[in-house]
Amino acid sequence: MNISKNGFTFLEIMIAIGLFGIVVITCLSNYLTCIKNIKVINDKIYALILTNQKIQEMKINHEEIKEDTGVFSNSDFIWTIELSENIIYDTITNIEFIPYKLTIEGPYISYVSILPFLKVQKKNE
Q1: I need a surface site. Which of 25, 92, 95, 105 has the fewest CB within 10 A?
Q2: Percentage of the chain surpassing pLDDT 90?
């Protein structure tokens, strides 16, 4: 008696569904990781744009730079200006140059930049 087999067995279908599930889960995991990385990169770019905006604003205002904190309008980013830990000494004139640093903090990122402004003071001995 010759029996012809048409179609797949239940076991073959279950194995195919299992393999398909593993592939889908792997692809979905990679996709979600890429989406998260894109959000972080976009926040970095936005923080850099906000840093340049704040530096240009300070250059235009010609005000004395002081330590301060604020919030950028229409965003979740907070800026902080403070003195840097780096000190540049001029030993001939006995003067210290202390650069300011700008910190931008957002939901996923904290970005620190040294500002092109210096606090100048006599060196304490």
Answers
A1: 92
A2: 42
63, with CB counted inside 10 A (0-12, 13-18, 19+), is: exposed
Tell me which amino acid residue 24 is: V
**What distance lies between CA 70 and its chain's CA centroid?**
18
Q: Write out pLDDT tens, residues 21-77.
A: 999 999 999 999 999 999 989 989 999 999 999 889 888 988 788 889 999 888 889
The upper half-sphere exposure of residue 37, i.e. CA atoms within 13 Å in the direction of its Cβ, equals 6
Whether 31 is in a domain gets the answer yes
Written as six digits, the tokens of 13 are 């279908």
- CA-to-CA distance for 9 and 103, rounded, in angstroms? 63
Contact 116, 54 (CB under 8 A): no
Quote the tokens at residue 74. 């229409």
What is the Cα–Cα distance from 52 to 109, expressed in whole angstroms? 16
* Residue 2 domain-assigned (yes or no): no
